[in-house]
Every structure is written in C-alpha cells, then in structure tokens.
Amino acid sequence: MVTNKSTQNSSKLIFWLNGGPGCSSADGYFLESGPLRFVDNKLTINKGGWHEFANVVFLDQPVGTGLSFTSNQLLGTLSEVTDHFMAFLKQFFILFPERAQDDIYLAGESYAGTYIPYFARAILYHNAVVPQGEIPYNLKGLAIGNGWIDPLHQYVSYIPYIEHHNIATPEMMVDLIAQQDKCLSDIRLADRITQSQCESLVTLILAHTREGSECMNQYDVRLKDSFPECGLKWPAELPQMSVYLTRSDVVSALHASDALQSWTECSSRVSSQLRFDNSAPAITLLPGILEKVNVLLFSGDQDLICNHIGTEYMISNMTWQGLQGFQADAAKNTWTVDGHLAGEWIQDRNLTYVKLFNASHMVPYDAPLAALDMMNRFMGLDTSLQSFSSKLGTDGDGDGDGDEDLPPSKPEPPEPEPSEPEPSEPEPSEPSEPEPSESTPAPESKPEPEPEPEPEPEPEQQQQQQQQPPPPPGGEKVDIDQPKKSLMSANGSAALLLVLIIAGVGVFIVVRKNQDRKKPSGGHDGVQWFPLSGNDFSNHGRRLDENDLHELVVESGIIDSDDDDDDNFGTSRGSRN
C-alpha cells in the first residue's frame, strides 16, 4: 500500500487494477498513477501520483499475473476471479484494520472495466447480507479509464473512430466492413466479453497502417511501433521496468515467490484461461450499480482499442435510473489544468464521463496532472491544496468560481488540512525534466443554471417508453442484490494475491534505448472537440438496433461537432492492459 503523502489520516483508499486479462498493476505503479516513474535511467518521483491525498493499493490479479502466484491451477471464470478478490479484500482489512472505515474506490483501465463492475456487485451484495464476523465495505465509487465494458458498442466503434481520425483508406474500409459483418453475426449468436471475429477488426486496421517495418500504435494513434507489435512495445519504459522487477533484491523486498524466474507485463497463460469464459459483459451490471454508487468513466481520445466513441455509444444506449443516456439538461463542461485545456466532462444521475484531450489508452501516463486532478475531484477532495492549478470552465455550484467537483452526487465532508509527511526513507532523485509552468487559466464559460429535477413521466410517456425497442445486448439492468449464487461460492484454491508494496530505491541501468516514436503520416496536433451535451450526444449515440448496426458504422459524417473550428485531429497488447 502506498500511503498518502500530504494528509496524515486520509480516509480515501484506492484499489488500482490493470487489465489484460493478465496484465500487471506494476504498469499502474511505474507508468501511470503510482508514486514513481522511470526517467533518464532513474526512478523519479511522479508528481501526478494518486497518493497525494489518498492511500493506493496496486493489485496483481488474477493469480498468475505479475508477481502473484498460486499453488493450484489458474482461474477460468469471472466468478472465480471475483471470489478471489473478495477473499483478498477480507484479508486486507484483517491486516490493516485501521483502514476498515475508509471510503473505497475501485479504479483501473482497459479490461479492468470488466473486473471492476463484477467486484463492485460482489461488494454491494456482501454489504446487503454482511456475513457474521465480517464488516461492510464502504464502497464510494468506481473509476474506469478506456474501459472494456460493453463489447458490442466497442466493436462497432472502430470504423467511426478511424474515419474520425482520418486513418481509414478505401481499401481498409472494404476489408473492415466485410469483417464487421462476420463480427455482428457472432454477436447475434452469443453476446460474450470477447469475440474472435470482432477482435480481428483491430488486427485488420493495424495491418492496413503498415508502412515497411512500422505500423500504427493501437494504444496511441499518434505514434508508430514496429510491425507486428503495433503498440506491444509501448510505453518505451517497459524494458527498464521489466529488468527492475526481475532483480532478486527487488523480488525479495516485495516478498514475492523465489520460484519466479522473471516478471512478465502481461501473462498469456492467465489470458488464455479466461478466453472461453461465458460471463455476461460488465455493461449488464452498470445500471444496477449506478443505483447505489458513483461511477467515473474516463477516456483518452488517442486510444483505438478501447476508444472513447465506443464508451459514448455505450452511455447513450444505456438505461439507468429509469432514463436512457445523458439527458438534454446535463451540461458539457470544459476543464483546464495548469492553464491548458485538459478535456471535458458531463455528469448525470451518478455517472460522470470525462474525455481527456491528447491522451492515450493509459491516461495517467500522458496526462498525469489532469488524471490526478480528475480523481481528486471525483473523490470530493479540496483541489486548491494541489501543487498545480486547475479550473472547470462551467461552474455548477452557482458561485461563479469554477471550483466545483467532478461530483460525487452527494457532498463529501471536508478533508482535514494536510500536514508535512514524516521522512521514512531516502527519496528517489527528482526528474531532470523542468517543472511544469503555470499559465493564465482559460476564460471561464458563462455559468449554466442548475438543471431542474427530472419530473416523473406522465402515464402516456411511460407507455411510450415501454413501446421502445429493447436495448442492444448488454444493456439490460441486473439486480445487484441477487447475483448468481456461484459468485460468492467458496473457493478452495490456495492462492496468494500479491499486493505491490513497492519502495522505489536506487538507480538501474537500461538494457536498451527508448524506442523512437514518430507521428504517423498525415497526423496533426491539436484538441478534439466532441459534443457531449444530451442533444449533441444523440447524433452519434442513438439506440443501436441489429438491423441498423451496419448502416450506422459505415455512414459518412456520423461524428458531428458544434465546434468545427476547433477540430484538429491527428490522424492487442493481445491483452488490454
């Protein structure tokens, strides 16, 4: 556990999960939201670490991922994975009873968008029954970045995404449309978390972007990588991290198994075991969870594999708390960090969606300060205590100062004033890169009036809603209080989920140079401005029907924008990390 550095008795506890399945949360620790980064061959302090005001646990799971290990076989279903997580949570609070009353946030990216809703449902069910001798868990929120939550809407987003980013060619489109037909045929037969015919869509896109020995990076479309990896060697710090986590002194300090011969970022064995899991996609759980818990979905706009358009399709077609999608009175808000436009966000009925500009699949890697500010606001913390400035362009609390949170829906009590942390160990050297400069914040937009509460629908409206076509696969609401019995069944596997309790020390020698990154031909710098208000959202987020899926994704110009002058675009990991 990484303890917070600014507030002595922080009541915020974040559990961070990377995805895959089978990718280590060392990615989160060393490359994203953790306290350390590899810079110029050294471990340096990450100024965007999420431990500024919260305690953070980076968890390697399922067993066999990263430095975790098991004496039994690997897990094959999300039900088993969830059982193991709940067993870990129980043991964690036995070891750290002082954290038992903390506000819990489950956070992660990519395939963690599948894990997290399953884990949240199990926690809510646990809290509803609270087995004798156990405690309820104070789950406050879920934060999912570029999440693999709704396969259907993510698969049908690939063609609109590459068209929107000027990546598509006529030859590419012919192949993709044919492959998408096969993909949709498989989805009609069974709505599963992954479909092999649909996964081939990304493979085709990458093959068509090949130029000699290079291809587009599927996690950051502004970059190139060697073919056929196309992003698997990214980020460039991976070789450094891999060598560091294989060192015997580091493995010993982490109390990992001596039997581990090497550290692997993403385990193909773990991924293969879950390949044939028939669990329902996580989108089926979200509506029920949103009845009780705040959810933050955030997307870097330069990611292909779990792209923001798929997330926006999902939200527009999801019904929660009796209404479909964001409503027309849910205002789009701009947002600046250190005076630079960081993105935009919209909030309605316990769901907050944030799109971060010029950020990849790994948002905290590209935009560490923006990601930290976003998370602090979501947790209801006082962002004026941060070491950098941030401002929301539209002020929702009516006082005109632009300081409102990315809400939880219910106000949080004020946090105690931070105090100076006590030094415990020598700190790693500071990064050689210059301090971020402050600039004048962007002008504030005129405050929009607070939306009136939604009136109860009239009987005639209720009848019309009932006559609407059913939502696409994965859109149904699931009762969180009645999960499948197998979800909470006892599991006899003697396995250890290893918490990465890492103290970063020392300097380590790089085995090879950072990979040179180039922008793809035809790319442009700039900010993508994508409409997110209720009315604008419907332009690209209309309800999808099996009969019009094909039409929707191949029609031209389905991505509209109110701000054409601001539109300046750049043109698997086998596992989603």
From TrEMBL:
One GO CC annotation: trans-Golgi network
Reactions listed under catalytic activity: Preferential release of a C-terminal arginine or lysine residue
Compartments in which it is found: Golgi apparatus, trans-Golgi network membrane
Root EC class: hydrolase
Biased composition (Acidic residues): 396-406, 414-436, 450-459
GO annotation terms (biological process): apoptotic process; proteolysis
Record-annotated membrane-spanning stretches: 492-511
Alphabetical list of Pfam families matching this protein: Peptidase_S10 (PF00450)
Topological type in the membrane: Single-pass type I membrane protein
Single annotated GO MF: serine-type carboxypeptidase activity
Region (Disordered): 389-481, 556-577
Record key words, sorted: Apoptosis, Carboxypeptidase, Glycoprotein, Golgi apparatus, Hydrolase, Membrane, Protease, Signal, Transmembrane, Transmembrane helix
Enzyme nomenclature, EC number: 3.4.16.-
InterPro entries: AB_hydrolase_fold (IPR029058), Peptidase_S10 (IPR001563), Ser_caboxypep_ser_AS (IPR018202)
Family per record: Belongs to the peptidase S10 family.
Protein name (Swiss-Prot/TrEMBL): Carboxypeptidase
